[in-house]
From TrEMBL:
Protein name per its UniProtKB record: Uncharacterized protein
Spans through the membrane: 6-22, 29-50, 62-82, 89-111, 123-143
Top-level taxon in the UniProt lineage: Bacteria
Keywords assigned: Membrane, Transmembrane, Transmembrane helix
NCBIfam families, alphabetized: CBO0543_fam
Organism this protein belongs to: Lentibacillus halodurans
Length: 159
């Protein structure tokens, strides 16, 4: 059952990734994806290394962490969050980050209670909620900073 779920998540993730890259601003979406994947992989390895949670059933058993989640699904959610908060105010970005992280945390709780895909050791649902919220804001802030730097370079080169 769990392996079938992982394959469904992989297929769904790849389809949604293709759809998300078809929208304008491909460079921004790709940069957001790669930034999120980089940080998610690093943080995911730390959480598993310090035995806060485990992934008993994995699509890629060579790794202790969830490669599918850290390299595809969470960065994909970051793209959709970034797209939905693109050119929006701070309050809207905060509320959308809370909404996205709440849905992800609720889904993670369901998976933890009903499958062997994730197992909390010294981890609690509110850690997931808080860390996902902060993660989305971190990636969004980095993207804002990169946009700001790029915009300043473009404006200063025309002078």
């Amino acid at each position: 059952m769990e392996v079938i779920l992982l394959w469904l998540f992989l297929i769904l993730g790849l389809v949604l990734l293709c759809i998300s890259f078809k929208k304008p601003h491909l460079k921004d979406w790709l940069l957001c994806y790669l930034t999120a994947a980089y940080f998610a992989a690093f943080l995911g390895e730390l959480v598993v290394y310090y035995q806060m949670l485990s992934y008993p059933v994995r699509l890629f058993p060579l790794f202790q962490s969830s490669v599918l989640y850290e390299h595809l699904l969470l960065p994909l959610v970051c793209i959709y969050y970034y797209q939905s908060s693109y050119n929006k105010g701070i309050l809207t970005c905060l509320l959308k980050a809370l909404l996205y992280s709440s849905v992800l945390a609720a889904f993670e709780i369901l998976l933890e209670k009903n499958t062997d895909l994730i197992h909390y050791i010294s981890w609690y649902w509110y850690y997931s909620l808080t860390s996902l919220f902060l993660f989305l804001l971190l990636v969004r802030s980095l993207m804002w900073l990169m946009d700001d730097i790029t915009g300043k370079r473009e404006n200063s080169s025309g002078s």
